[in-house]
Prior knowledge:
This is Glycosyltransferase family 4 protein. It comes from Cohnella hashimotonis. One of its GO terms (molecular function) is glycosyltransferase activity. InterPro entries: Glyco_trans_1 (IPR001296). Its EC number is 2.4.-.-. This protein has twelve helices and 13 strands. By secondary structure, the protein is of the alpha/beta class. It has a seven-stranded parallel sheet with strand order 3-2-1-4-5-6-7, sandwiched between helices. The protein has a six-stranded parallel sheet with strand order 10-9-8-11-12-13, with helices on both faces. Helix 3 (78-86) runs parallel beside helix 4 (103-120) and helix 9 packs across helix 11.
Amino acid sequence: MKILFTFYNPSGGMETLNRVRSRALMRAGHECHLLYTHDGQGRKNISGIKTFITGNDYLIERLIERENYDVIVVCTDIFLLEKIRNWDYEGKVIFEIQGLGTYETARAILQDFAARVQVYADALLYPKTDHLIELMRELFPRLPQFCFDDPLDAEQFGYESYPKKPFPIVGWVGRLEKNKNWQEYLLIGNNLRGYYPDLQLWMFDDDTLSEPPEKALFEQTLRYLGLKDRLVRHSNIPHEQMSDYMSIIGDSGGFLCSTSIMEGFGYAVAEAMLCRCPVLSTDSDGVRRFIRHDKTGKFYRRGDIAHATAEALSLMRDHSRRAAIVEAADQHIRTQFSPQLYTKQFTKMMRQLGCND
């Protein structure tokens, strides 16, 4: 079977998802290609997968005509979905949603998309995330729907041992935008500094995706809190190196702090767990697939900095519970989110849609 996965740009969780699932499906004998309509920093993470970067309609149409794909998975891009059907493509087209920001934003976008999706898509694909399940079933009751977890490749990404840092580190992964709720991370870090004077904050983001007003607000907040000497900002780290950083954060006695308002899946959280780095997170929906409070991670009430600080201190000071959380989290990700399981579910979806295996 020949499959094309499309998205706007190779960045963040979508770049990881497309790369991991393509490799998994290719190991199972399928041919997978990637199409991004805009270039991005995550392109350097891709190897061994035929990848096209173009927003030119003529070139995209010729590509689809030449490669004769059995199925095209279009993530989020409603305009590309419509174009593909207008180009008389005869294979199956699956419209995929992985996360659209806050609940209100997701509902508004999907309501806007609804009429076109029902005309042009053969099926819908999305992860096991409560708010997405609710919205998809409400807005697209007549379309075939497939809902299963995204994969993580524990063989290629996991814990690496390095000399322990002499200070604890609190990490954060995301973009400087509203839904990622970066201000809350800085406030939590500012509180923890009172307990750990040598604390460091490590932020990992793609600086090319930040809007100027958000960058200005970020710099203003840093100055106001006096955190400039404590914060290390890592922009566009190659994905394969993120396992090193997460391992170092975990071994420092710190943790990954996820402050998102809403997540469709939450790759950063799952990947931290694979690197034996404990996680403190808001209950941002998608991460419920990974975190059971005090079992595989910790939740805090979004907006409650005192509660976040208390849970963070517990994670940093209760060494026996921390060790149990780290072990349980690692095993949970390895068993429930394997590429092999994803391949099985994806090929079952294809069979149900009548695609050739």
